[in-house]
Design brief:
- This protein is an alpha+beta fold and 71 residues long.
- 24% of the residues lie in helices and 42% in strands.
- It contains 1 helix and 3 strands, in the order H-E-E-E.
- The protein has a 3-stranded antiparallel beta sheet.
């Protein structure tokens, strides 16, 4: 869904959006380290994000399975 990119630290947003778009277009896994920003607390956290593309047996993309890990 949309909106998740809003928590990415401003200086990392463009790079991460481009990396995600490349993964989507190429139907390949996403793997990136970036910072997220909590607007309520002002805390910046470095995370490692990964997402694996899930495909139907016919090759069609069904979705993505992802995880975030604090680094």
């Amino acid at each position: 869904g949309s909106g998740w990119e809003n928590i990415i630290y401003e200086e990392d947003q463009k790079r991460v959006a481009e990396e995600w778009q490349r993964a989507v277009v190429s139907q390949r896994d996403f793997d990136s380290t970036y910072r997220i920003y909590n607007r309520e607390t002002g805390k910046i956290t470095s995370i490692h994000g990964r997402a694996t593309v899930i495909k139907h047996s016919n090759g069609a993309v069904l979705g993505w399975f992802g995880m975030l890990k604090s680094v």
